[in-house]
Amino acid sequence: MNFYKLIDKNSFYNYLKGMGMGIADIIPGISGGTVALILGIYSDFINSIRSFNLDSISYIINLDFKKLSHQINLPFLIPVILGIITSIISFSFLVSYLLEFYREVIFSFFFGLILFSASKIILNLRPSSKIDFLQIFLGISFGYAISLIDPIGTGQNYFSIFFSGLIAITAMLLPGISGSYILLILGKYDLIINSLSNFDYGVILVFSSGAVIGVLLFSRIISMLLSKYFRKTILFLSGLMLGALNKLWPWQIDNENYLPDEYSNILGVDNFIEFSIILFLISFLISFLIKSVK
Q: pLDDT over 70 for what percent of the chain?
């Protein structure tokens, strides 16, 4: 494997895209898969991960990185994975702080980014048949249904942490379904975020083990769908992103959506409407400039 390929311009861009995925993965309501789809690397990311198998382990043991690179596209995958890890480790505390004190502003940005980007993807695919519109409708319906699930508790033992990693990473691979939101549903979000911030290696290792197994299993299913039914799958996933926007409405109280003024009157706090509008407009500009999915 030529390692200079890992540090060229495209690799740097993929590293930044990976960072975007990582930041999204630690924000409840946003999926790293959503960012990957918006940034045009979703298919490459899924196909690279699903290519990992027992032969890959043999190549690693024998230090045969040339065959490993050919199999799983290391020049693409390594920068993306490093970007994801960088964001999760570096920004978990910052994101937690921003969500606590400036949730309305942060969610306004991501609400707009997902709304405009998903709409752009659908428009670029030019849906025209009943099947096309059915896929979009099913995606919207499923995404909205997921957004209505209330949090439950699953305990704090290692098995439940492993199970949470398995389920959450599956959601992270799907645009529109937030892995962090799944952790909230399972009652594990605070535990995992605090473990990352405090470097609790036991919890991190068990959670990561579940996540790795989930990635290897579920990526194969998504890759098959993209290979055989690319157009239908992308339309469904784009609809999924739109349906899940219900969970990203910036002015929420106990999972109920309110208008900004109602939100302020009920809680007696600033709704940050001016900053929220500015970031909403910025999200439109960014979604307009981002390369379309292919």
A: 89
SS3 for the chain is CCHHHHHCHHHHHHHHHHHHHHHHHCCCCCCHHHHHHHCCCHHHHHHHHHCCCHHHHHHHHCCCHHHHHHHHCHHHHHHHHHHHHHHHHHHHHHHHHHHHHCHHHHHHHHHHHHHHHHHHHHHHHCCCCHHHHHHHHHHHHHHHHHHCCCCCCCCCCHHHHHHHHHHHHHHHHCCCCCHHHHHHHCCCHHHHHHHHHHCCHHHHHHHHHHHHHHHHHHHHHHHHHHHHCHHHHHHHHHHHHHHHHHHHCCCEECCEECCHHHHHHHHCCCCCHHHHHHHHHHHHHHHHHCCCCC
Mean pLDDT of the chain: 82
pTM above 0.90, yes or no: no
Distances (CA, A) of 45 to 72, 146, 149, 180: 10, 24, 28, 19
pLDDT of residue 74: 87
